[in-house]
Amino acid sequence: MSITAESILDDLENDRLPLPTLPEVAIKVRDTVDSDDVSIRDIADIIMTDAALSARIIQVANSALYRGLSSADNVQAAVTRMGLNTVRTLATSLVMKQLFQATHPVVDKYLRQAWKVSTDVAALSAVLAKSYTKLESDSALLAGLTHSIGLSPILVKAESDPVLLNNTAELDKLIYELYPRVGAAILKNWDFPEAMVKVPEQHLDINRVHSGDVDLTDLVQVALVKTVAGSDHPLGHVKSTELASFHRLGMADDYEEIDMSGGVEEIKEAIV
Known about the structure:
Blueprint: H1 5-13, H2 24-33, H3 40-47, H4 51-61, H5 75-82, H6 84-96, H7 105-132, H8 137-146, H9 151-158, H10 162-165, H11 168-189, H12 194-202, H13 216-227, H14 244-248, H15 262-271
Helix pairs in contact: 1-11, 2-3, 2-6, 3-5, 4-5, 6-8, 7-8, 7-9, 7-13, 7-15, 8-13, 9-11, 11-12, 12-13
C-alpha cells in the first residue's frame, strides 16, 4: 500500500492514525501535582510505582544540575530537592525517549536523530527561557522535547511502504509536511495546554506573527535554528537574525552571548 500525505491526514482526521500515549505514571504525576493539597509524599508514591522512572528521578536529582551537599538516595528526597513543578515536567520528559525508538532500522535511525536534536533544542530552550523571558524553564524544556513528536506515527505508518521508506527525499518531504500537524494532535490528546500544543504546530513557520510577549514557540524556534544550522533541516539555512522570534527574545546579533557550555550541557546530561 502506498503511503501519501493525503492518506495519513485522512487517517488522522478519522482517528485511524495510531498516536503514542503518555505513560500512566506521567499522567498521574501531572494530574496530582495540579490538584489541591498535594504533598511531596503523594508524588513520591506515584513515581515509586515505576522502577525505571524512580531510578532516573534519583539520578537527575544527583546530577550536576540539581545535586546538593548530600546525596538524594531515595525518591522522596529527590522530589524534595527538585520541587513538584520540576518533577512534574521531568516525569514526562524522562519517559519521552521511549517514544523515539523503533525496531525497523530506517525508522530507528530517524527517531534517534530526532531525539538528539530534541534534547539539544530542549536544553537550549530552557536556558533561553531563564535568560531572556519570564517563562518557566521547565516548560521550555518540555516544549523543546516535544516539538518533533509528530515524527513517530508518520514513520511507523511508512513502515508499510518499503518504497517510501527507502526513498530518503520523499520520506523527508512527507515528514516535514506532516509532523507539525500530527505533533499538535498528539499533545492535544495528552491534554497539554494550548501554548504547548502550538509549539509542534507552528515552530517551522519563520513568518509567524503573534501579539503579546515571547512564547514557548518563539523559544523553540530560536533554539532549533541554532541547533540545526548548516544541516538539511528545513530551518538549517535560516539566519537567526531574520526571525521575529529572535528579536522578540531581545537577543543581540547572534548567540555568542549565550553560555553554551554550562547550563545547556548540564540540562542535556540530566535528560538524556
